[in-house]
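Quick question, first post here. What does this chain look like in 3D?
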Amino acid sequence: MAKAFKVRLKRSTIGSTQTQKDTVRCLGLRKVNSVNVVPDNPAMRGQIMKVQHLLEVTPEK
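> Answer (accepted):
Ran it through. Tokens below.
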């Protein structure tokens, strides 16, 4: 199992709800194609699932 995930914002948050925009910001993503490494825990998995249509997620070793 991965200890962290590399998340990349692949779509803009224009047209998304405010909670989805806030979730993207909490994941540490600002602009399209920005990348951040987040730890693998239930809270982060929930945030990723909430905006999975905007993200590209890859496991980090």
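The longest helix spans residues 18-26.
Strands lie at 4-9, 35-39, 55-60.
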